[in-house]
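Most newcomers find our protein records easier to grasp once they have seen one. To make this concrete, we reproduce a full record directly below:

…
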Amino acid sequence: MVAQIPVCHSDRNTIVLLHARTLALTEVSCERLQSRGVDLAQHLGYRPNGIVKGSEAARAMSAEAKRSDGRIRSVEDGGVVASLQSIGAFEDIKPLANKNVAKALRKLGMLRDDEYLIENGSSQGEPLLIIELPSYFRASVGDEPTLQDDYKVGGYNYFMAETMLNESTLAFCKQNPSGCPNFNNFTTFKVRKLQRLENVDVFEQYKRHETMVARKMKSRGLASNETNSLPNWLKKLSQKNGLSSEANGVYLLHGTKSTNLDLIVEHGLKTKFSLDRGLSYGKGLYFTDNACKASQFTARDGVILVCRVVLGRQEILPRTCPRKLFPDFGYDSAMAKRNHTDAPHAHKQLHNEYIIYDDCSCYPEFAIHFDLS
């Protein structure tokens, strides 16, 4: 959500602006913001014994002083005193817990029911992160992880999933089945069941990581266009569901056995569950943009997961690459490019593979159960 600071015409507008910056709220009236100023001050860096050095409040007041020849309107207008009072500096007003803040904001219409606040874990008054659950989620905060069967069997979504899997299968593998193991026995995918994974805690971890990577990429002026080779349907799905282009967020495929699905629903994908054998580029989580590659890691009743993945800054693995335990310094993920990287066991790299080494970098969202014909 992009910060747009409300223009407020009042004697205490400065504290309102500070709160607006912190929450990155849009289209919120000054009256509503000011009415919650007491509850939000602690997140700006105000403490009972003063203001945290380097906090949002400290930086904003410093900027005020530069703009106004040393004058700080937020002090003159009483905003700073009010904020310090609100978090207990004078022991007459106590701070509210984060859940209470979110509850108050919902009551005022400043947060929807499917949005909630999490702290970024910093004592430096960094902005709150507003997490918005996907509009199609049934789950809300506090619900148990679940698999949803919302999709009509044989309906439009089944048809689209089946079409997308078959379209993402490389033409090379169809023409040269000996180079792609699964193509010795099948030619097309047939979708048997389509489900959606809903785990709010794992989604929160993913969004927190996505935000961190996006900020890092922006601060360093980094960008990546290495995902231009993705099939169009993965690109369109990423755009439709609002994946962060700033964090190089994309949808990718991950093949697994159906017996693993309950564990994945409960905990998400975990590096510690990866088997050492068969992992060409080290112990990480492997994804691909080709259904034929993903299907190599499934059994007869296997599942292909469509996952949100934060790639951040990608390391393109060299032609000869050793096994890894983590990405090289300065990178968030690794990519083994088709016809470019050769695996340590000397097999030719026929498909694109994307490797992450941080569990929070992905969120498994859709499960496609399929048969091979």
The first strand starts at residue 46 and ends at 47.
